Amino acid sequence: MDGITIALSKGRIFEETLPLLAAAGIEPLENPETSRKLIIPTTRADVRVVIVRATDAPTYVQYGAADIGVAGKDVLLEHGGDGLYQPLDLKIARCRMMVAIPAGFDYANAVRQGARLKVATKYIRIAREHFAAKGVHVDLIKLYGSMELAPLAGLADAIVDLVSTGSTLKANNLVAIEHIIDISSRLIVNQAALKLKREKIVPILDAIASVVGSGAVESCAVKS
Ligand code: ATP
Ligand code: MG
After folding, report:
1. Alpha-helical segments (H) within 7-123
2. Transmembrane segments in this chain: where (predicted)?
3. In the chain, how many domains are there?
4. Do residue 69 and residue 36 come from a single domain?
5. Mind listing the pLDDT tens digit for each residue in 109-131?
6. 201-218: per-residue pLDDT in tens?
């Protein structure tokens, strides 16, 4: 396919990417929140958007089913960066990966005593690396839904989760105690597509970079 396919997830990433795409003259012709279509044409005949689950964006781009995508740093850390070029931090969908515990749980003491902590999370890889680096022994419990419930229901001592305002933690009597990493969304590009469709992709990256305000796109330095 000659055109460009962009993988986006519904919700905050789609909303916050819209103004960036507009800078490249790309405006989706339908709203994925109301349309059931998963392939959305844009104001540019040679560019289409595919609507994917946030965690699937790297997979679509890695295999070349999409040329470009947007994915959270959290998703990229869990997925691994194989086959993906990550030229640009879009500085959207910003939040922080944190360790949180029930208010009143003496985490520091449990860690000091070498206790084996039960940690529930959707982010197994990030959590494993974080606790390994601190030398804290943990049993990781993989969850797919609301992690805040796990300590309240007695499933885990702590959670590793994304925090933005902290209001969900607060509402469930949890407190964030360790900051693991700042999270924002990145542009991801299929490496082969960048070479083969360079004349189409590079101007899109440049237009986006100019509105993100982070200067030159590193990918332009890649040899074709
Ligand atoms: P779903 O909510 O449909 O189960 P998801 O949580 O993977 O899927 P989103 O909620 O759209 O998808 O999150 C997409 C990305 O936005 C995440 O990967 C993360 O980088 C970022 N994000 C998640 N929660 C927040 C938040 N509360 N504030 C800001 N950014 C966030
Ligand atoms: Mg979500």
Report:
1. 12-22, 57-62, 73-79, 107-112
2. none
3. 2
4. yes
5. 999 998 899 999 999 999 999 99
6. 999 999 999 999 644 454
Residue 146 CA, chain-centre distance (Å), reads: 17
Kindly give the residue spans of alpha helices, DSSP state H, lying in the chain.
Answer: 12-22, 57-62, 73-79, 107-112, 124-134, 149-152, 167-171, 191-196, 198-212
Residue 11 alpha carbon, nearest atom of ligand 1: 11
The answer to whether 100 and 158 have CB atoms below 8 angstroms apart is yes
Q: What is the Cα–Cα distance from 88 to 115, expressed in whole angstroms? A: 40
For residue 12 and ligand 1, the question of a CB distance below 6 A is answered with: yes
Pocket flag, ligand 1, residue 96 (CB < 6 Å): no
**Nearest Cα residue to atom 26 of ligand 1:** 164
* Domain membership flag for residue 188: yes
Mean pLDDT of the region 69-95 = 96
144 pLDDT above the threshold of 90: yes
Could you identify the atom of ligand 1 that is nearest to the CA of residue 75?
A: 18
Band (2; pLDDT cuts 50, 70, 90): confident
Residue 219 falls inside a structural domain: no
CA–chain centroid gap for 215, Å, is: 22
58 lines ligand 1 (CB under 6 A): no
Question: CA-CA distance, 63 to 173, in Å (whole number)?
Answer: 42
